[in-house]
Amino acid sequence: MSSTSQTATTALPSETSKMSGNIIAVAGAVAALVGFFLPWVGFIKNGALVASLSGVRVGASPVVELAGGNVLYRGSPAAYLVPIVAVIVIGLSLYAIFMRQQVAEGDGFVKIGLSLITLLVLWGQFARAQGVAERMGVELQLQYGLIMVLLALTAMIVAGVLDIRVAMAGNPAFRNVLNALSFMSPATFMVTIFFFIPVVLLLALSLTDLASSNFSDPWTFIGLENYRRMFSDRFFPRILANTIFYVVVTLGVFNVGMALVLALLTNHIPRRASFIFRLLWLLPRITPSVIYIVMWQRFVQVPPHGIINQFLGWFGVEHQPYWLNETPWLFVILVNGLVGASFGMIIFTSAIEAIPKDMITAAKVDGASAWQIIRDITMPMLRWPLLFVTSYQTLSLLVSFEYIMLLTNGGPGLYTTEVWALTSYKRALGTYFGSNQWGYGAAWGFVLVTIGAILSIVYLRVFRFDDLVQEPKIDVL
Fold first, then answer.
1. Model-level pTM?
2. Are strands 70-74 and 140-142 parallel, antiparallel or unpaired?
3. Are the beta carbons of 153 and 115 closer than 8 angstroms?
């Protein structure tokens, strides 16, 4: 009897929370629908700009009309998110109330996610309306329908939180997953704000013809026209080949290859000497980019200013050209590689020093040579650092163009050393042909992001990432 009473007592709060969460969600969604379909206030007195969702005549962007000295604000197609989200939330909530015995784990996340997205969209619309009001020199007023929608979306977020709490109480495994996700939430938030949302905006921008020549006009969506134009560009094969050559050679020779060699060498010399050696290799990385490139330009200048040519003159070499015109790729790779090698050197050095000394001592006792220790002990223990450095440096090289722009600006000549990221920058921000073509440049940038994501997946497969993060198993004898 006591056990039964205790079970009933613990089940009651969950059932109450389940009902209250879904009732709040339904009420909020209905309020959002009502707020959306409230009648439009026709002519606004006193020259005020009214931001409203109700009675919207949908346009591609906010429009300001002057009628009898009054200002009217119209919304955008994004406002239709409100009724769509409201209908979805009503359906989920009613299904949970009448058809399910318990709240599904995903219901709360769906309600919170959809409501937050809609809130962000409405906030963006309000910000645009505020900008319009400031330009027109009028007051901004929020119409009561919009206020009701904002409050209703907040209520749906609260309902989602209640659903998650109920699911956690009824499913310990789900609670453990949420606890793990809570530790990841700060990093997830940063990645979402500074990566996923910009990628979505980049994709949207790439589907428009936005440029400095039509910046004041509403966005015109042109579909995949920018991508068709990009792939049909007659210089596209050269830019693609330049990018592949630059990434593969710089990554293999310097960012991973030389970094690994430097880490192995500096771990076999006295500690103080290795510290000074690593510090010297870090100097290119901590040197400001402009100063670093000016130093290299001084190296490759023609006589009597070029240091390389002065050195060659001491040995009687008569051919002393401007080396950036003779061998541009050599210096592009050197300039970037010396900076990239220092990063991998630090990562590999830390990983090598973390290898238990007992393993190396036992190998030496068994008569293993230095090469055998590196091959059979050190390298297998470096799979994780190799995955990290290779992935990180590949993505870094794909999007890097700063040193190339400062050193050669993609030359000499036409697209000789121009890589994908530099092309994207020039199209979008470099007044390409006298105009900033933001939509066209965004198409180049989005393809580059896609390539980076594909390469990351390939690396995870090649280095068997699942095995690296697998929990160690204890064999029972």
1. 0.67
2. unpaired
3. yes
Beta bridge partners of 71: 66
Nearest of 92, 128, 131 to residue 110 by alpha carbon: 92
Can you read off the two tokens belonging to residue 297? 């330009």
198-212 b/e with 16+ CB inside 10 Å = b?
eeeebeebbbbbbbe
> Would you give the distance in Å from CA 178 to the centre of its chain?
23
**Tokens 């409405």, residue located:** 122
Q: Which helix (H) or strand (E) holds 74?
A: strand 70-74
The C-alpha atoms of residue 418 and residue 226 are separated, in whole angstroms, by: 20
SS3 label, residue 71: strand
- CA torsion, points 405, 407, 410, 411, in degrees to nearest 10? 150
Q: Which residue has the tokens 């920058």?
A: 425
What's the token pair of residue 10? 């613990």
Q: Where are the domains of the chain?
A: 12-170, 225-468
Q: End-to-end distance of the chain based on CA atoms, in angstroms? A: 46
Architecture of domain 225-468: Orthogonal Bundle (1.10)
Give 10-residue mean pLDDT values along the chain (477 residues): 42 54 84 72 48 44 43 57 85 78 72 86 74 68 73 87 77 74 81 86 88 72 90 92 94 92 85 84 88 90 81 78 87 92 90 86 85 86 87 90 90 88 87 73 92 88 72 54
* Number of residues written out for the chain: 477
Residue 425 neighbours by CB distance under 10 Å: 19
Burial class (CB in 10 A: 0-12, 13-18, 19+), 28: buried
**Cα–Cα dist 412/415, whole Å:** 8
